Structures are given as C-alpha cells and as structure tokens.
Amino acid sequence: MKTVKFAKNIRRKVKFISMKNKIAVIGAGGRTGAMFAFELAKATEVLGVGREKEVETVKEKRVWISREGEPPKLFEVNVIKESEFSDKFLPEIIFLATKNPVGPAVEYYYSLFQKKLPALVLSQNGLAAGEEAKNALGKILGDKANEVQIIRVVLLNAIEKKELESKVYISYSPPIRLCFGVFSGPKETEEIALLFKKAGIEAEEISAKKIRDMEFSKLFTNLIGMASAARDLSLEDGFNDRETFKEEVNSLKEYIKAVKAAGGNFLNLSQYPIKLFAFLVEKTPLPVLIFFRKKFWGIINKGRGGREKGNLDEIDYYQGEVVRLGKETEIKTPVNEEILKRAKEKR
After folding, report:
1. How far apart are the first and last CA of the chain?
2. How many CA atoms lie within 13 A of 73 on its CB side?
3. Is the pTM for the entire model greater than 0.85?
4. What is the mean pLDDT of each run of 10 residues along the chain (347 residues)?
5. Any residues with CB less than 8 A from the CB of 263 and at least 6 apart, and which?
6. pLDDT score, position 12
7. Which of 32, 67, 121, 253 has its CA at 20 to 30 Å from residue 168's CA atom?
8. Given this model, what pLDDT does residue 309 score?
9. What is the CATH number of domain 2-205?
10. How many CB atoms lie within 10 A of CB 208?
C-alpha cells in the first residue's frame, strides 16, 4: 500500500515539474511587475499586462533589466494593454503586481474569467491586500470565490526604476528572494514552489497561520527609511542626523507596540533577521541605538543592495498602516502620524 502511495506521489510531482504554466503578470510595466515577468519567463510562458503608456515603452524596446553584476538586458516579454486582456489567454496564475489598492483590479480581471479561475498572487506592500482581494472576489463570484487560491508574497529585494537617455532601467540584485504562503483558498503549494525554483527564485514558504506575521515583518522593513525620505534625505543622511534617526526608531517602536497589541509577532524572513531587529529596537535604550546608528545603516544598506526605499507614493500603506493598526488596537502613533502628514505634503 505504501509503495502504491509513493508511486502516486512521484507521478504527481513529475506532473508539476513537466506541466507548462501560463502566467499573466498584471502591472508588468512597473518595477515589481517587470522583475517578476522577466524572471518567471525563464521557467514558463508569461504574458505581461500593463497600462497603455507602459506597454508602448516596452514595445519601443526602451525598457531594460539591469541585474547587478550583469550587462543590462532588453525586456522582451510579450506584453499587452489592460483593455486587450481576455480569457483567451487563460493563465493558471495571475501575478497582480499593481500598486494598492487591489480591489478594483481583482474585480476587473476576474470578471473576465468564465471557465477556470486562476490562482491569484499578491505582491503588494502593507497589510490589507489579501483581505481586500478576498472581498473583491466574493463580490463578483459569490461562493465560487472560495475556489480561488490567494497567495501572499513578500519580496525581499529592493528594486529601482530609473530613466536615462529615453530608456527605462529596472535594477535589482540577484538572486530574487521572497517568502510566500496561502492567504485563503486551496492549500496546495507544490506547483508554485516548483515554478519559483525553476525560475531561480529563492522562495521560503510560510505556513498559512503565520501569513499575518509575515506581513507584519515585511512592513517593519518597509518603514525603515521613510522618516528620512519624508525629509528629502537618503537613508545614510537620515541615519547620520540624530533627530531623523530618533524619528526612525520611535516610529518602529510605535509599530512594534501596535503589532503586539494586535496579537502579532515578527518572523525572520529568508536571510533577514527581522525578529532580532524588532527585539533590539524594542528593548534597547534610544541613546545606545543612536551610538550604533552608522552600523545599523551599513547592515540595512547592504541588505537593500545600496538602493533607497523611499516610496513616498506608498506612504498610505507604510505609515498609514501603522496609524490604522494603532487606532484598531488603541495604541498611540504620533510619530508615524507626523511622518505620514509630512510625506503627503510632498506628493
């Protein structure tokens, strides 16, 4: 009996390895979308979907992928405009790499599928994407929404997008590292885990019961540098300035209190000891942290490959999330509120 079961498992795994997934990357003209489309195209058939201007830029051969240590490569993934997408290209997986909020995009794309419902992968920052997508699916699909597997992904690579001499460069440091887990729906993950492996992506699976903690942990890393960016300072300059560094630390201390009040915890993700960092920020007196601030900058800068994390356009899903969580848990967040206000004034 055990031999038969083992043989079935082997055949099942061979099926996963040999099958050719079709993937639609929504938002392929953006930083994260272009990176995912480029990397996943090494393993399977990828269709990039983007806004009209972004698609035209790709088709004009002006988008380049710059992986650190390698010569830039032309981004040659097949791309179409959002309005051109239909269920004629029926993917097994949709990678939704658009910016928050995700609800409108989920409603639009899943309203186009009449036969098979593809799995949904969400790579957005913040804490709300999974629940928002689930509610959007329920709105248009009713009970059938439970058939859609929602996979939450946290990307650990910093990605930059720069324009130089009419060309757009998407730059990051390989290998791609991420953590993923099932937010809702079917629990099977072998297929997507093997897809990541075939694409050369280092992916760590997080159990479904710890997905919220995974999101809390990623947001901790995203908050670092936002106080500096809101003052028009680089991470290095912000950490060198005592007052800005105090604001960086105090914003994290508020966040840690709110996470704990919400019953959450921090995880070490891949090679990032976030649990340790959160413990040090919470327990270490501020004067001691100030003394070691240059060392902390070096560690963070190395982890980000020297790239800045000043996404002021996503401040509502960084400091904004802390403020919302603070209100839910009755934890005061005046430092994060001030950073949020200052950043919004600059947008």
Report:
1. 64
2. 12
3. yes
4. 41 43 94 97 96 95 96 96 92 96 97 91 96 97 95 94 93 95 96 96 97 97 92 89 94 98 95 91 92 81 66 89 98 98 87
5. none
6. 43
7. 121
8. 63
9. 3.40.50.720
10. 15
Q: So what's the pLDDT on residue 114? A: 78
Instruction: Count the Cβ atoms, other than its own, within 10 Å of residue 250.
Output: 19
Retrieve residue 37's tokens. 């489309």
Pick the CATH number of 217-346 from 1.10.8, 1.20.1070, 3.30.450, 1.10.1040: 1.10.1040
Amino acid identity of residue 88, one-letter, is K
Cβ atoms of 102 and 133 closer than 8 Å = yes
Task: Report yes or no: 21 and 195 within 8 Å, Cβ to Cβ.
Answer: yes
> Helix axis angle, 319-329 relative to 211-223, nearest 10°?
130
Position 284: which residue type?
T
Query: Under 8 Å CB-to-CB from 246, ≥6 apart: which residues?
Result: 286, 290
Residue found by looking up tokens 């949020």 in the block? 340
Q: Residue 32: which of 124, 111, 112, 104 has the closest Cα?
A: 124
